[in-house]
Amino acid sequence: MKIAIASGKGGTGKTTLATNLSAYLSEEEKVVLIDLDVEEPNSGLFIKGDLVHKEDKYKMIPLWEQDKCTLCELCQEVCNFHAVIQLTDQIMVFPELCHSCYACSELCPTSALPMVQQKMGELKHFHLGNLSFVESRLDIGQEQAVPLIAQTKKYINTHFSGEMIQLYDAPPGTSCPVIEATKDADLVILVTEPTPFGLHDLTLAVNTMKELKKEFGVIVNRHGIGNDDVLEYCLKEHIPVLSKIPNDRRIAELYSRGELVYQKFPEINKQLLKIKNYILEMKNGKAQ
Amino acid sequence: MKIALTAKGTEWDSMMDPRFGRTEFIVIYDDEKKELSHYDNRAIESMAHGAGPRTAKKLFELDPDILLTGNGPGGNAAAVLKNSQVKVFVGAGDMTVKEALEAYKSGLLKSF
Q1: Chain segment A158-184, per-residue pLDDT in tens
Q2: How much is the mean pLDDT over chain A?
């Protein structure tokens, strides 16, 4: 079962929830946590297991072979991303803009744009008891998170059973990387905070999930600050609120030291149990 | 000599567009004829990606001697422009087309 932990607004507690929930669930069953926020993965600050596997990840980009090229302009015409530009007597390729669609390469009448590998990042796989942890990290200078997110999901599908609980720590926002990180999820948990900013971005995330036709629920983190607008919005929109995690400075202090919090706070334990029950009910097909 | 300017309009008193890749117009001033002509670049609005190289390619084809703009081209656009002879001057983002040309002629714009 795939559960994506996402949010509209950044800094609402996706990683705090993903790491604590996965550690909590792994006390009783096998769980895999996947950090898909490849532009700034940070679940690894909280989950320190043994490294069992590491691999470089590549994307494919066209390489111009001048001696074969007839400067027919077809490559630049078919590129939707302007990653291939023809100047007077040369073709320029912009690897950061390339989406690896192969159009220029496949359609080139003289095969002057073969696709070659370019390293975009690195995947690491750790073990910690029942908990497996996989993170991918985009190389500095790489602009596209989507291909690395897609390849990381592929790695998970190859190495882990679909029956297992798989928790995906998604990037913030509602752009392409978030779509890629959530589109195969059986359940999307949107973490928000009860502030006007939190509500504004939650609304964007909710609309995105509706568009994707996803099952989703909301967790209100730092409950007690701000106002009740988020809860009223969820009530009005019939969005299940899976849990309300209280605001507590001590949680932030532990977080800042890279520590998990649930063992030290009975209240958090209680909230995680509620989330776990919701997940298990859904997994067993009893939700709703 | 041909001088290109990134602008939000096509007239002497049109405001400059501080952006290079997503500039609305490329205005061309012909120093001999003392005339303005322009290229309408507004189709770029609907393109999510690659505005920089796209506009740079257009500028490459227009082949001016000088480009006056605001913030300066980004990395991809600059890579394209390196293949042309154009000299880029920046810092004219808040001026009109006329003011930008005068500032350039007075040596007030910074070379990019």
Answers
A1: 999 989 999 999 999 999 999 999 999
A2: 95
The predicted pLDDT at position A287 comes to: 44
Q: How far is CA A206 from the centre of its chain?
A: 16
Cβ-defined contact of A85 to B57 (cutoff 8 Å):
yes
- Residues A193 and A158 both lie in one domain: yes
The CATH number of the domain holding residue A194 is: 3.40.50.300
Domain boundary among A72, A89, A113: A113
Q: Say yes or no: B50 contacts chain A, CB-CB below 8 A.
A: yes
Cα–Cα distance for residue pair A222/A168, rounded to 1 Å: 21
**Confidence bin at A88 (pLDDT 50/70/90):** confident
CATH of the domain at B102: 3.30.420.130
Structure tokens at A178: 């978030």
Residue B29 pLDDT greater than 50, yes or no? yes
CB neighbours of A173 closer than 8 A, spacing ≥ 6? A8, A10
Instruction: Give the pLDDT of residue A286.
Output: 52
Nearest chain B alpha carbon to A94:
B76
Q: Is A288 inside any structural domain?
A: no
Residues A184 and A274 in one domain: yes
* Structural domain count of chain B: 1
CB A208 within 8 A of CB A185: no
State which amino acid sits at residue A51: L
- Nearest-angstrom CA–CA distance, A119 and A99: 14
* Residue A87: CA count within 13 A, CB half-sphere: 22
Structure confidence at residue B49 (pLDDT): 83
For residue A104, what are the domain limits? Answer: 64-113
**Which residue in chain A has the smallest CA separation from B48?**
A81
**If DSSP codes are grouped into helix, strand and coil, which group holds residue A229?**
helix
Interface check B44 vs A, CB under 8 A: no
> What's the number of domains chain A is made of?
2
Q: Is residue A29 part of a domain?
A: yes
Give the three-state DSSP class for A133: strand
Query: What is the ipTM score, two decimals?
Result: 0.78
Q: Cα(A268)–Cα(A272) distance, rounded to whole angstroms?
A: 6
Residues 58-77 of B with CB under 8 A from A: 60, 76
HSE of B63, CA atoms in CB hemisphere, 13 A: 3
For residue B50, the enclosing domain spans 2-111
When the pLDDT of each residue in chain B is averaged and rounded to a whole number, the result is 94
Instruction: Specify whether A182 is located in the same domain as A275.
Output: yes
